[in-house]
Every structure is written in C-alpha cells, then in structure tokens.
Design a protein that fits this description.
Elements: H1 2-18, H2 24-38, E1 44-45, E2 50-51, H3 52-55, H4 65-70, H5 74-87, H6 89-100, H7 103-115, H8 117-124, H9 130-146, H10 149-160, H11 167-180, H12 183-209, H13 224-233, H14 235-243, H15 247-256, H16 273-281, H17 298-311, H18 316-337, H19 356-365, E3 374-376, H20 378-381, E4 390-392, E5 420-424, H21 429-438, E6 442-448, E7 451-456
Parallel strand pairs: 3-4, 3-5
Antiparallel strand pairs: 1-2, 5-7, 6-7
Helix pairs in contact: 1-5, 5-9, 6-7, 6-9, 6-17, 7-17, 7-18, 9-10, 9-11, 9-17, 11-12, 13-14
C-alpha cells in the first residue's frame, strides 16, 4: 500500500509541476528557499519578499537541503512530501498491530489512513513543511502510547521545528502524557512546546520581520480578545459564524473519513482539538477546506485515535466489525473527496507534461539565462526560481503579496533591476495595465505554449 500510494502521488505531484500546475505561492517559496540554503546563502525568498524562517519557523526544511545537492529541483520537494506522508502509515500499522494484535486489522487501518481524502488532497497542494509534521506527530503519539520516552522527545523536537504553532498539537499530547504516563515528562513536553511557540513568535519572527503577528488577522471578531468575548456578548453571532463557510461540512469530512469510531474512546483523537478549532474559527477559508494543507496535521491524530479507540473495545468480533466499518468509511470518503484512481474526481487539474503546449512553454523558458533577475507569472515561478532574485509578477512593477503587504500596488525601488519578464501571451486586467506601463523597456525574445519571455532593452 505504501508503494502504491507513493507511486500514485509522487508521479501525480511531479506531473502537476511539469505541466505548469503549481504556482509560485507556495511551491516557489519553498523551492527557492531550500535552493538558497543548499548554496549556503541567506534564505531571503524574493518570491514573497520575506526570509524563509521569518514567514514561518520551518527550520525542519534544513533536512531537505542535502537532497538539493543531489537533485536540485522543485520535484524533489514534491516526492519527499509524498514519502513523508506515506510513511506515517507505518506508526499507524505498528500501533494497531501491537494494540489490536491482528495483522489484517492493522493493514486495514493503515490503509484507511492512506485513503484519507484530506491527506491525498493536501499531498497534491504543492509542497508544505507540514508533511514533516505528519510523520513526527504520528511517531510522537505512538511513542507516548507504547511509552518509548526517547523517541517521544526526539519526535516532539522534530514536530516543533516544523512551524511556530505546532504547539497547538504538542501541548495536548503533553497533557495526555501527564495524566497517562509520566507527570514530569508531560509537564516538560507541554512547557517546552509553549515556550518554543513564544520564542518562535516573539524572538525569531519578530527579529526577522519586525512583527510577531503577521498572520494574526485570521481571527474573527477583531482578534483574540473579541473572539473570547463573543460567546458572552454575541452568542447568536458566534453560532451563525460557525455554521457559515462550510465549517460543519468540513468537520463532517474529517470525522466521517474514519467513521467517527475515534469517539468510542476519544482521548487520543482529542489531541487534534486545538488544531481543528483553529482551522474552524479562522476567517481564512482555506483552513476549513480539505483540499489545502491546513488539514494535514489532524489526519494522523484521528487515524491513531481510531486505532486506540478500536483497541479499547472488548471483544475480537467487535474490533473486527469496527475495523471493517472504518475501512468502508475510508473507501467511501476517498471515492467522494479523494484523488485515488476510482475517486469521483481522480485527476488534479494540470496539463500533460508531454503536451505540445507544455513542450513549447518549456522551450520558451530556456531563453531565460541562469542568474538573471526575473519577474514571472505564478505558474512559471517554480520553474525559474533557482536564482537569488525572482519575483512573482506583477511584483516589483506593482507589488502584490510581497514583503509585509505594506506596499501593495506600488512600484518597488528595484523594479529597474529586472532583466526578464515571463508572462502569459494573453493578458487582461491589471496584468495588461502593468505590462503596458513597462512594455517600452522590453522586447520579446521567446514565446510558445501561451507564455512570452521579454528581455530588458539595454539603455
């Protein structure tokens, strides 16, 4: 099953990238950042105008650097992500084998994890460091349950290095360890997680960006204080908000993919409560939709919570029926919302890499020399970002999603340093207006497959 999953999703991920289906946000960000690290350069990612570790404290990406010494390509990250997500099925199998004692049940439950639509959809949403978190978190939970303290500590450290808000998953795990295994270690895990989150926000991110609250605007009712006051001041408004935006359906998708069996004994699944709560209350719609990476973190928790709940059932017959129900639920969920060959929508939108249009576009991009300063449209960025300066069009001629978003729409001072512009041959709206303002300074040097490459005219 691991081989089938990796073969399916590694190939599909690479095909999406090769067919110009992955935009600069976010694949180009991580590809340029890891490439800079592999060249021992400061990881200031010009695609977004921020330091890689100031945007998120994803120090775990250092582990991907050696791979770029062998195969420096965005496809490396995509294959790595698939392998990491797939390998989290191993802890699921190990826990089920040890706790339930049946090889076929363990196999079925590991399969239910691999069939999870949030896992498959998140796998195809470009690349994100959360793929490391899925594996580290699965290992940490199994280590806590089977009481392997050293593996628990190593896995918790790995998880915290993925992102600044990972503590929302690690702190509940520490609480479980406190009540179920070891009070001192439980307090230590929770305290370290909380302290690291504060350090990541208030020291690392603030020192790099000058602010610790770059994504803080995603809380409703004016921020944290307004959110905490809302149940008392505006209970009807809060309830209406939680029912809107597809939030109940999102929770249904996350739970029904495992048949809700984890509710039989929910203490392990509850480790994901803070994470899922963050997703549900966010004003950012991607956070409560399974096609995006924000849902990846909860999948291994619910999978292992399901294994734990089944292991708590009394008879072998009941355990077998519950496992069969979980496997059936996983198959149904995968068919409805997943990306397996038999799913309702099995193909992630992209052009075939060997299609004439893609081949022509690839040939056009060859006109851009290595090291040149480039501004490229979103779907060409990750094909050109192995350079120190590349911007996602229309930045820097009209800043868009760049820096701290304080210069949106402005022409940035270094716009005159751009040597090549790579944009669609047919422009409209703002893109057409911005290019019209600079067209006199560039001439066409290559085109094909719907892309045009322009070079700055020497003064």
């Amino acid at each position: 099953m691991l081989a089938l999953y990796i073969g399916r999703f590694a190939l599909l991920s690479v095909q999406v990238q090769d067919g110009f289906g992955a935009p600069g946000y976010d694949l180009g960000i991580f590809d340029q950042g890891v490439w800079l690290l592999s060249r021992f350069d400061a990881p200031f990612v010009t695609v977004m105008g921020r330091n890689l570790f100031g945007d998120h404290t994803s120090f775990v990406l250092v582990l991907a650097v050696p791979l770029y010494w062998i195969w420096p390509a965005a496809q490396t990250l995509l294959v790595l992500q698939t392998v990491l997500l797939a390998c989290a099925a191993i802890p699921v199998y190990i826990l089920a084998r040890r706790r339930i004692g049946s090889a076929w049940m363990a196999t079925a439950l590991a399969g239910a994890y691999l069939l999870n639509p949030a896992l498959q959809q998140g796998n195809l949403e470009q690349f994100h460091p959360e793929s490391f978190l899925v594996l580290f978190l699965a290992l940490a939970i199994v280590a806590a349950l089977e009481w392997w303290p050293r593996l628990l500590c190593v896995s918790v450290i790995g998880a915290l290095l993925v992102k600044e808000d990972t503590a929302l998953l690690v702190i509940p795990l520490g609480v479980w360890v406190y009540f179920r295994r070891d009070k001192a270690l439980g307090i230590g895990v929770a305290a370290v997680a909380a302290a690291y989150m504060a350090f990541a926000f208030e020291v690392v991110i603030r020192s790099i960006l000058g602010t610790a609250n770059f994504y803080g605007g995603r809380l409703p009712f004016g921020g944290l204080v307004g959110l905490l006051e809302s149940p008392f001041r505006y209970p009807g408004r809060l309830w209406a908000y939680l029912k809107a935006g597809g939030r109940p359906f999102y929770l249904w998708q996350m739970g029904s993919s495992f048949g809700w069996i984890f509710l039989v004994s929910p203490e392990i699944a509850a480790i994901a409560v803070l994470n899922l709560t963050e997703n549900v209350i966010s004003t950012f719609p991607y956070m409560h939709q399974i096609p995006y990476h924000y849902s990846l973190d909860a999948v291994p928790v619910l999978a292992l919570g399901t294994v734990y709940a089944i292991s708590r059932l009394q008879s072998a017959r009941t355990k077998g029926l519950a496992t069969a129900f979980v496997a059936s639920s996983a198959l149904v969920a995968c068919s409805l919302w997943g990306l397996s060959p038999w799913s309702r929508n099995p193909v992630y939108p992209h052009q075939a890499p060997d299609s004439p249009a893609v081949v022509a576009a690839d040939n056009a991009l060859k006109a851009v020399p290595a090291g040149a300063v480039v501004s490229a449209s979103a779907f060409y960025v990750s094909h050109l970002d192995h350079r120190r300066k590349i911007y996602q069009w229309p930045t820097p001629f009209s800043a868009q999603y760049w820096g701290l978003y304080t210069e949106e729409g402005q022409r940035l001072p270094f716009a005159s340093s751009v040597q090549y512009v790579v944009i669609p041959s047919q422009l409209s709206g703002t893109d057409k207006t911005v290019f019209s303002s600079i067209a006199a300074h560039f001439h066409l040097v290559a085109s094909g497959g719907g892309v045009s490459v322009y070079k700055r005219i020497a003064p």
